[in-house]
């Protein structure tokens, strides 16, 4: 552990840059604590606070611009990829899409303080066509605010931080083991949280082949679009689909036959939003509501833009 303190004092700027960079790129390594430690060490002159701030700011902007370009090039696909590899629950995209659309690029100023939001804010900026100059302005302000807050917290509580560092330095390899254990427990908690979330959304799904069979049999299933308004703006909906963005069924559904087949789709990983809506519809008596496995991607694979959708999906006059 004394060697770690030595490294922080002599190579702290590089360490801050590296840890902030990998954390902002998506690895589950908390970087804010290292900024607090750096701020505390800067008080006693062991680190240069200005260089630490510059290193953190540079790391944030490199990461943000990387995801911004990925969002600009790959669009919605990069958002789904982020949620697949993230240790946060899969609704990370669906819960933040409309928030970003409501506030626009200004949301980048506070995105790093909001769990989950930071993961998708930069690529979403690219996917929604935010001008690069505007992106750098708000992303830079957000990075400066987040990095500066960590350093200032370290400056304010430098005495307490220094006591912790002194204690760790006397513990030798035990301190490293303790830190590794804490990191492992954090990763385990996030993994269990993700698994619990998925288990809570266990519901029978319908495959695209089964859906096509229903259509051919004349069942006229009602298609329900459970995507956020932002996702709907990024990719066209199934023709005739009923948009569902609230917590209750829309009035047009209340008088519907409860035995009608209802197919709910989204464009999120593991169909989680569609599963949530299907479970809600079950609570209102629509026991044949099912999420579409594969979501909008599965539909688009079956019906390309140059092929007309079946007339039976026009919803019999339901609003779209």
TrEMBL record:
User: Keywords of this protein's UniProt record, alphabetized?
Assistant: Cell membrane, Membrane, Transferase, Transmembrane, Transmembrane helix
Q: Which Pfam families has this protein been placed in?
A: Rhodanese, VTT_dom
Gene Ontology MF terms in the entry: transferase activity
| Protein name from the UniProt record | Sulfurtransferase
Instruction: Classify the protein's membrane topology as the record does.
Output: Multi-pass membrane protein
Q: What is the first-listed, main subcellular location in coarse terms?
A: membrane
Query: What sections of the protein cross the membrane?
Result: 12-43, 49-70, 135-161, 167-189
Show the InterPro entries listed in the entry: DedA_domain, Rhodanese-like_dom, Rhodanese-like_dom_sf, VTT_dom
The Rhodanese domain, residue ranges: 217-308
What Gene3D superfamilies does this protein's entry cite?
Rhodanese-like domain
Write out the annotated subcellular location: Cell membrane
């Amino acid at each position: 552990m004394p060697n770690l303190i030595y490294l922080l004092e002599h190579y702290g700027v590089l360490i801050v840059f590296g840890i902030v960079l990998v954390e902002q790129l998506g690895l589950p390594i908390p970087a804010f604590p290292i900024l607090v430690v750096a701020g505390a060490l800067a008080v006693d002159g062991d680190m240069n606070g200005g260089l630490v701030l510059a290193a953190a700011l540079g790391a944030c902007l490199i990461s943000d611009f990387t995801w911004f370009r990925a969002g600009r090039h790959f669009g919605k696909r990069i958002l789904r990829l982020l949620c697949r590899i993230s240790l946060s629950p899969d609704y990370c995209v669906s819960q933040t899409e409309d928030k970003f659309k409501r506030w626009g690029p200004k949301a980048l100023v506070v995105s790093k303080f909001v769990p989950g939001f930071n993961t998708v804010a930069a690529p979403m900026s690219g996917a929604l066509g935010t001008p690069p100059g505007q992106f750098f302005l708000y992303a830079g302000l957000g990075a400066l605010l987040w990095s500066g807050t960590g350093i200032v917290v370290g400056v304010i509580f430098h005495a307490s931080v220094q006591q912790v560092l002194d204690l760790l330095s006397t513990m030798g390899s035990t301190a490293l083991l303790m830190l590794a254990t804490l990191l492992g427990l954090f990763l385990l908690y996030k993994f269990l949280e993700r698994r619990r979330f998925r288990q809570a959304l266990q519901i029978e799904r319908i495959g695209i082949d089964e859906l096509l069979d229903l259509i051919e049999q004349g069942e006229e299933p009602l298609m329900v679009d459970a995507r956020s308004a932002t996702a709907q703006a990024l990719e066209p909906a199934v023709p005739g689909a009923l948009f569902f963005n609230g917590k209750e069924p829309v009035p047009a559904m209340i008088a519907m036959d409860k035995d009608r087949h209802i197919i709910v789709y989204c464009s999120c990983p593991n169909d989680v939003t569609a599963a949530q809506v299907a479970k809600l519809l079950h609570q209102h008596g629509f026991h044949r509501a099912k999420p579409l496995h594969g979501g909008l991607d599965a539909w688009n694979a079956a019906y390309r833009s140059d092929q007309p959708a079946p007339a039976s999906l026009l919803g019999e006059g339901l609003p779209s």
